[in-house]
Prior knowledge:
By secondary structure, the chain is mainly alpha-helical. The protein contains 20 helices and two strands. The protein has a two-stranded parallel ribbon with strand order 1-2. Helix 14 (297-330) crosses helix 15 (350-369) and helix 17 (384-402) packs antiparallel against helix 19. It starts with a strand and ends in a 5-residue tail after the last strand.
Amino acid sequence: MADVPATAVTGTAEVPQAGLEADAIGPAQDTIIGMANAAPAVSVGLTLAALAAAAAYAVGPIIVLTAIPMLIIANAYRRLNLWKAQCGASFEWVGRAIDPYLGFMTGWLMITGTLVGVVSGVVVLAPSVLAVFGSTSTSTAPNILISTAILLVMVVIAIVGIRITARVQVGMGLIEYVILIGFAITGLVLVLSHHHGTFPITKGWFTVSGIGGKGSLAAGFLIAVFMYTGWDASIYVNEETTRRTVNPGRAAVLAVLLLAIIFTISEVGLQGVVSPAKLQANSSSALVYVAQAMGGGGWAKVMALALALSVIASTGVGIVALGRMIYGMARRRVLPPLLAAIHPRFSTPAVATLIIGAILVVVTWIYLLSTSVANAFTQVIDVTGILYAAFYVLTAFATVTYFRRRIVSNAADLVLVGILPLAAAAFLIWLVVKSLLAAPAPQLWSVVGVVVVGIVLMFLARFVLQSPFFGDARESAPREG
């Protein structure tokens, strides 16, 4: 396959201008979209007890250190977006810089990772909403009705347009972040003032090994990486963002930075509000329990509101991101071309979005009605972080490959798009290996299943759909520019 500088590639290899609405949202809205997909309140709620235990309360250093490779990967996305600002993102970049078959598999990992991530949120939609009203109903009917209703609303919003999607996300995000950070600061004040029942801060909180050196760096990193996943949603709406080659990449980097701040403040501020024993005993509802310990049932409902908004927001962004990923791949005919259909009025990938919505509704019903299927889904949900890490690694490799000529001719690029992306990729590969070695057999088989299905779809795209994507020449950046 030919390997030519990007500036020399012409003809049918280039994707035509998309039908999405250009310049519809600004960089601030795009940043919120990336943050919403990471679901800060949900991420903190799921990891508060687990991270405190794994890191022996050294959560601050763990979260900050994990932000470094995430920022490096986000910068890789930024640099590649300057080359090709297309909603297919890593699918295009890996395919055009390294290999089209690997590019397809990258796109498949993007879709499955995001879809599984959305499913993991959908199944707790109803409990999150019910908790706002102080209800813990486990009855199937209200759970199905609430989840379905919210899914349908988010699908409609996604189809109506990226502008209304962004406005809704900003509104929900601001409320969620104010509540979460407000509780975290209050919690930190209570701990620092040695309020009754709190767990005191010691120097162990600020070391990588934790209190008494009992923290596990590897276990802490595994949890922290899971927290950050999802910020890449900022990139999938690049064709609808102002200055599409520049702003989405900056939004991705800024989303990681802001997530690092929110995660650090929240985890450090809340983990000491109650004793370690009580925190672990209430690990499944840690945020609501901590809020109740701080101010009673009323404050617990306020925290439940933040959690509900976080779940709804991440579900909405997940639907939008999946619609763009599928549209970007279908436009290149590696998925059925029907999925690239654009709504004539709203300029959104309506068909892809409707199909994603239907899949989520069906999965939610099956999950809630069948215990055995729910257990199978749980195994796949547990490997979400591995799927994200895999396509982050492939994107890092695409960065190094595409910019290889500059790496050998420019010292700054040697570091920024050479050494650092490789180091970040090595870190994520190490975590993936650690995860796989520790994973039970059902989780390992779920990973194998994802890969096998991807390979089958890849060959269908190549030989049935006969996508020209697989014949595209590889591209690389010139030495200067």
